[in-house]
Each structure stands twice: as C-alpha cells, then as structure tokens.
C-alpha cells in the first residue's frame, strides 16, 4: 500500500481541468457525459445557461492566488441547485455535545499517513452515481435520493468495512468476514433502512426519505439485522416496511419444520412466528429510540440476542464531537468511518486539497472517511473522503479536504440552520461544528470483532 507522502495522483481531473480553461463547449460536455437534451429545447437552453455560469465560476476559482485545489466542469456542472441539494440530501444528527473521552483504547501511536484505498468495496461505493435519461435526473440502483443519504451512506460504509482485506482489531485477531461481505455484496440495504428504521423523535426528519440519522440506522442494523438487497431493493422513496412480508431463511424453515413435525405444529406457524417476532423487534426498537440518547458519545454494544451478530456487528460507537484524534484512531483501528459534512461547495471540485468551506457550515451530506495524509507537493495535511457521486467526479470519486495538525479551535464555527439537515425535535437552534467542512462534528464507526 503506497504511503500518502509518496503517492502520485493519477490524472483523475484531467478532462475537467481542460474544460475549466474554456476549451470545452456545452455541446462537447453533453456528449462527454452522455446527456440526451434535444438541441433547441427548453431543457437544453436551461442546462446551457447553468453550464455557462458554472464555467465562469470555475475560472474565477482557478484564478485564486496560492490555491490548494482545482475546480473543474465535471459531471455535475449542469445540475440545478435543487438537484445538487437532493444529491447531498444528508440528514445528520443533533443532540448531546458532551465532550466525553473516546471509547477507543489507545494502544498504539497513529502513523503520519494511512488509508484504506486497497479495498475493492470502495469501487462499488464510488460508482453510486446518478445518471440522466431523456434529459431527466434519474437515480441509479443505489442512489442519492433526497434526504435518504443517511441510509445510503451507512449502507455504503458497512459494505466498505465488511469488504476490507485486513483486520486491525485491538487484540490482533482476525475473523472470517466473508459471510457478512456476502450479505451486502449484491447491493446496499438502504431500502430496508429507509422503510423500517423507527424515528419517534424525528431526528434528522420524520423518517424514511424525509430524513433520519446514521445513529438510528446503526442501532437498527445491530438490533434487527439487515436483509439482502435482492429481498428489499432500494427504490429511492419511502414505503411500508417490508420486513413483515419477508420469509425466514430456508435453513431456518427446514430446522423449525423438522422440530414442529414432532410437536404437531405446521410449517406455516413458523412463518407467522417469524413475522410476529419482527413486529415485536421493531416495536421494541421504537421504544429504545424514543427513550435513549443515541447521540451521546459512547459505545453501544450488541446484546446476546442482537440480530447484527449474525454478520459480525458487535456494536457501534458515536465518536466525541469536534475532536480529531478519536476520529483518526477509529479510522486506523476499526476501518472506514461514516462522517457528516457540509458539501454545498463540492460540486465543482476536480483535484487538490479542498479548503473552500467557511467556519460556519450547514451539515448536509454523508460520506465515508477512508484515509488521511500529507500532500507531497504542498505539504498540506488532508482527510481522504470517499464520496458517492461517481468516479468521474473529483479524484476518481474521492476528495481530499484540508486538515489541521491538531484539534484547532480556530477551525470551528456554527451550523445555524440545523433544521435543514441535523436537528431533532427540541434541539438547539445552532450547533458547534469543527474541522474543514464540519468533518469533526458527527462521526460513527461500527465495531466488528473484539470489543474492549
């Protein structure tokens, strides 16, 4: 695995950089990104105007003296503002800002640079790009539907962690994660999360496509478990929870049927019992979500009968807000970390170390932190983020954002519109966010393997 100090970035942003210099017409852009606008149509003219405005913005950004990053006319250059908002669509978490110590055990010093870029699962997350059909914005199978990225983000994070090719447990042991990876290999469990996660406090929204939080989704995955994507395909819209209509696994039915033959019960009873158990689990989880503070920084451990144990989920941790060291330690010790960020200005990013977020930021997007390091040319420290806007965006679907060398109060500000993405009912009207693009504010990591 190459170190970030020595990493030479391929020319991910080459085409975008050329376009940013004014060498690409809108017609060439339409052809390059396979748009299907009809020349002379109202749609064509509207997108053309948006493209021209973005081209001027790109040129202005790239004229900045001592700039750290390069803007470009990538695949989002003709998106309407509301489409960009839907693409981000993140509903994060608000609540306790307690400064509790991290639950991670500090058993070793952190390296200067580290990343999980060798993971094959990252390629799947990177390819979750929206595409266009007949001039309309259409989501792919694992899409970024408006305010459902809380589900898509967590589902992608679990797939990345379960697909990793090495183990970094505290005890040095590794466990076979192939069954877990197989569970999520066919697609994301985002549909199940959108439809079924209880959200009685209206944290991040009212549930489903109107919003929830990664904490709620992680709690659901641990207590209730997750189904294969083929059983509950993601449709980018809320619907009735389909768990009650699912059947137990064939092995479960066979075992139970053999038992019931001796006890005089029918196999149909097993299915009814299964659905009744699912309903009971969801009711219990709704009560837990209503009466528990899932936002407080701590480890949530799986009980002996938690369904998440079936794919190795021993628990999950809400990291202390606005602190860098616990975040980097979780990344190194446990694997990729789900973080919430302010991504309003990300759509024109092409390459380099991004530093275009103000101190006051509105958290609106869910992404996966996969590494950190130092740029070999500029010496700038950065976080490495895996986004889900397609491999044609940014540096092969990723973005590097500026990182300070320690927790720095100078890089803190306020999210004064938490109702647009992070607030629960009754929460404060503003929350403190730290790090470039608020990256330190809200982070969640699943625990697989041994828990201390």
Explain what you see:
The protein has 452 residues and is an alpha+beta fold. It has a single domain, classed as Alpha-Beta Complex (Cathepsin B, Chain A), CATH 3.90.70.10. The protein contains 12 helices and 14 strands. The strands form 3 sheets. Strands 1, 2, 5, 6, 7, 8, 9, 10, 11 and 14 form a 10-stranded mixed sheet that branches. It has a two-stranded antiparallel sheet with strand order 3-4. Strands 12-13 form a two-stranded antiparallel ribbon. The longest helix is centred in the middle third of the chain and has 25 residues. The chain is globular, with a radius of gyration of 22 Å. The two termini are 28 Å apart. Belongs to the peptidase C1 family. Keywords: Signal, Zymogen. GO terms for molecular function: cysteine-type peptidase activity.
Describe the secondary-structure layout.
Layout (H helix, E strand, L loop, with lengths): L13 H7 L5 H7 L9 H21 L6 E3 L9 H8 L25 E2 L5 H6 L4 E3 L2 E3 L10 H14 L15 H8 L4 H7 L17 H10 L26 H14 L3 H25 L6 E4 L11 E6 L5 H11 L2 E5 L7 E6 L10 E10 L6 E6 L11 E5 L9 E4 L15 E4 L8 E6 L4
Parallel strand pairs: 8-11
Antiparallel strand pairs: 1-8, 2-9, 3-4, 5-6, 6-14, 7-9, 7-14, 9-10, 10-11, 12-13
Helix pairs in contact: 6-7, 6-8
């Amino acid at each position: 695995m190459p170190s970030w100090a020595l990493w030479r970035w391929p020319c991910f942003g080459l085409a975008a950089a050329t376009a940013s210099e004014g060498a690409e017409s809108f017609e060439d852009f339409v052809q390059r990104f396979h748009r299907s606008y009809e020349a002379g149509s109202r749609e064509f003219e509207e997108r053309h105007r948006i493209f021209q405005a973005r081209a001027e913005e790109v040129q202005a950004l790239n004229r900045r003296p001592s700039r750290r990053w390069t803007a470009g006319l990538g695949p989002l250059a003709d998106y309407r503002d509301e489409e960009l908002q839907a693409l981000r669509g993140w509903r994060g978490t608000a609540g306790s800002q307690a400064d509790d110590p991290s639950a991670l055990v500090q058993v070793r010093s952190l390296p200067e640079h580290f990343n999980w870029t060798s993971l094959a699962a990252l390629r799947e997350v990177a390819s979750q790009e929206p595409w266009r059909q007949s001039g309309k914005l259409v989501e792919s199978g694992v899409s970024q539907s408006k305010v459902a990225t809380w589900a898509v983000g967590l589902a992608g994070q679990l797939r990345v962690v379960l697909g990793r090719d090495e183990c970094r447990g505290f005890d040095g042991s590794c466990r076979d994660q192939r069954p877990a990876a197989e569970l999520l290999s066919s697609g994301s469990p985002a549909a199940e999360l959108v439809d079924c996660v209880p959200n009685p406090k209206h944290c991040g929204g009212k549930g489903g496509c109107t919003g929830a939080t990664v904490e709620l989704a992680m709690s659901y995955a641990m207590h209730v478990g997750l189904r294969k994507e083929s059983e509950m395909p993601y449709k980018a819209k809320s619907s009735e929870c389909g768990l009650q209509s699912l059947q137990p696994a064939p092995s479960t039915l066979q075992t139970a049927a053999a038992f019931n033959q001796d006890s005089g019960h029918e196999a149909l009873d097993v299915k009814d019992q299964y659905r009744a158990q699912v309903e009971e689990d969801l009711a219990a989880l709704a009560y837990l979500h209503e009466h528990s503070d899932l936002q407080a920084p701590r480890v949530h451990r799986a009980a002996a009968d938690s369904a998440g144990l079936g794919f190795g989920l021993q628990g999950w941790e809400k990291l202390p807000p606005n602190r860098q060291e616990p975040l980097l330690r979780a990344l190194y010790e446990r694997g990729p970390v789900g973080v919430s960020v302010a991504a309003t200005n990300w759509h024109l990013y092409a390459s380099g170390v991004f530093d275009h977020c103000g101190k006051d930021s509105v958290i609106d997007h869910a992404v996966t932190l996969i590494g950190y390091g130092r740029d070999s040319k500029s010496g700038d420290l950065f976080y490495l983020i895996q986004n889900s806007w397609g491999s044609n965006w940014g540096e092969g679907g990723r973005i590097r954002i500026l990182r300070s060398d320690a927790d720095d109060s100078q890089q803190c500000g306020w999210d004064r519109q938490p109702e647009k993405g992070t607030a629960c009912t009754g929460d404060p009207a503003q929350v403190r966010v730290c790090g470039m693009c608020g990256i330190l504010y809200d982070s969640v990591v699943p625990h697989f393997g041994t828990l201390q």
